[in-house]
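Course assignment 3, question 2. Fill in each field.
Student: A.L.
Task: Predict the tertiary structure for the chain below.
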Amino acid sequence: MNPSDYKIPDLIPQRPPMVMIDMLTRADERSAGGKLNIKEENIFCQNGKFAEAGMVEFIAQTAAAFTGYNQVKSGMAVKLGFIGSVKNLSVHSLPDAGTVIESEIVVDSEVLGYTIITGRVFLEGRLLAECEMRIKVEG
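Answer field:
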């Protein structure tokens, strides 16, 4: 099955109102992409804008969906993951409620049980935010 064929609740441990990804659009061995339709009622929307924390969570949940997709494909249960750190966060612009943003994550390395990724958020091809993230997945 393609990543977009899966329902997000089957790939991530988060549940509403903390779900910040609508679809895993693609996945290969070391990277993935996702989409999020930003709704006005999203807990990270303030004054019609999607906040920085929401974009960080969107990147993290794209990584979680990518990991969950690989686990489900292998017949395993989806495991909890935790953000260990966020480094070099740059936010260039905040998207409006009512827009659809896209994410891209690339697995850079795996060190001492942590997966280190580079994540980016785009709106219509324009870079909105980027960071490096260290993620720890349970046992």
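Instructor remarks: The radius of gyration is 14 Å. Residues 37 and 100 are 4 Å apart (CA to CA).
Grade: pending
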